[in-house]
Specification:
By secondary structure, the chain is mainly beta. Helix content is 1%, strand content 51%. The chain has a 14-stranded antiparallel barrel.
Length: 336
């Protein structure tokens, strides 16, 4: 019989590429426009694999009357399919961010988002202790349960956070002696409604996030190192992941001419504490980016998982300042 059950909120290993899942205040800070697709597959070697999908779109809205400050809107939707009981979660959200310019290199932003969770489960796929006849499982036997779980639940969700952005150079990918970083704090599932298929009083615990994402030029080169970390706390559970990518600049308009398409290849690894080693690759070409990573399981689940964790893919389209919506201005020249 079971005494302890462990679970997780939706999460991605390439967390820097799922900004709306760690802080809505990141919307519109780095890009005028950004659209991202995410896919993750987990635990296929242990059980019926867990699949997580994500899509987000953010748009900055600027006006000359705001004197350098501006707004951004973000829409995102996540879908998760887990386990043999086909536990499915659909989580769409809308968010709003205000970005305050502190000086030429720093911005402070605050964002909120709200949406809802719609969860379904295939109750007929569940197996109960009373359905074992002493030798094997017999689905024709009664379950012995006095309370039948609901097949679906709906609950509302809300979250928000703050972010500090530093941008020493507005070059597209990298620049000599330049640095970029974001650091912030957020909270999700604030005052979330019921999250149980059986009881009406159980609520999902608030998830707190603290993170740092950096991009620092290596002295005397155009290449860069991209360190980052993420700490998430949800009730008694803590997740810590840290690592870095080494970015090779393959082509940069600052190095050649404005006709060259900027492109870079980043390779590195992350470590999720007591859970997984995550080799990662990120390819950036002009306004597009493609990322791939794989979780190599190193947790106590290793004997069952055989170190197989999960494949994750990311596809991004982005427009830097100068391309996007900028009400009240006539210039649309790209800025690298």
């Amino acid at each position: 019989f079971g005494t302890v059950a462990l679970a997780q909120d939706i999460h991605f290993s390439q967390y820097a590429e799922t900004p709306s899942s760690i802080n809505p205040a990141l919307a519109g800070v780095t890009y005028n426009t950004r659209a991202t697709l995410n896919y993750k597959s987990q635990w296929s070697s242990v059980a019926n694999k867990y699949l997580t999908y994500g899509f987000s779109f953010e748009q900055a809205i600027k006006h000359k009357k705001l004197k350098g400050n501006y707004f951004a809107v973000v829409a995102n939707v996540f879908k998760d399919a887990a386990g043999d009981a086909k536990l499915n979660t659909l989580n769409p959200n809308l968010g709003f961010t205000y970005i305050q310019k502190i000086n030429k290199k720093m911005k402070l932003s605050g964002g909120v988002q709200s949406g809802f969770f719609y969860r379904t489960i295939d109750v007929s796929s569940l197996r109960w202790g009373e359905q074992y006849n002493g030798y094997n499982y017999d689905p024709s036997l009664p379950t012995g349960e006095t309370t039948v779980p609901r097949s679906s639940i709906t609950s509302f969700d809300m979250g928000g956070g703050v972010n500090l952005n530093f941008l020493q150079s507005d070059r597209f990918l990298s620049a000599k002696n330049a640095a970029k970083f974001d650091v912030g704090f957020s909270a999700y599932h604030y005052s979330l409604g019921r999250s149980s298929f059986i009881t009406s009083s159980e609520k999902l615990m608030t998830r707190y996030c603290m993170y740092f994402n950096g991009d620092f030029n290596i002295p005397n080169s155009i290449n860069a190192i991209m360190p980052s970390f993420l700490i998430m706390r949800q009730g008694p559970s803590t997740e810590f992941i840290a690592g870095a990518l080494f970015k090779f600049i393959l082509g940069d308009p600052s190095t050649y001419t404005s006709l060259k398409k900027p492109r870079a290849l980043s390779i590195g690894s992350y470590y999720r504490y007591r859970d997984a080693i995550i080799p990662s690759l990120l390819l950036q070409y002009n306004k597009y980016a493609f990322g791939i990573s794989y979780d190599i399981n190193v947790s106590p689940l290793t004997p069952a998982s055989k170190r197989n964790g999960g494949l994750e893919l990311m596809l991004r389209y982005n427009l830097f300042p100068g391309y996007g919506v900028n009400l009240g201005r006539s210039d649309t020249k790209p800025s690298y």
